[in-house]
Predict the structure.
Amino acid sequence: MKWLILILGVASNASASVLVKMAMMPPRRFPSLSEPLAALGNWPFWLGLCLYGTAFLLYAAALARLPLNVAHPLVTCGAVASVALMSALIFREPFYWNTIAGIALMIAGVALVTIRVASTVS
C-alpha cells in the first residue's frame, strides 16, 4: 500500500505540472490586471492546482509509512522523469539523448541511496 501511495503521489505531481503548462498555453488565458477573472474558465489550471494538493497529501501519507530518505528521492526522481517523458509525448518538446542519460543516472542514484533502506522497510 505504501508503494501505491508513493506512485500515486508521483503521478499526481507530474500530471499537475503538465496541466499547469497546458493552462499557460494559448488559447487559455490567465488573469491580468486588465482581466482579473480570466482564470475562472481555465480548467487545466484549477485541476492542476487540485492535483498539486493531492500530491502533497499523498506525499505526507507516504512519509507516515516510509523513511524520508526513501520517499523524498523517489518522489522527486519519479516526478522529474515523468514530466520529461510527458513533455515529449504531449507537448512534443525535444527529448535529447542527454535527457535519457540524466533520467538513467537519476534512477541509478536514487537506487543507490535508497536500496538498503527500502529493503529493510518492507
Notes: Residues 2-121 form one domain. The chain has one domain: 2-121.
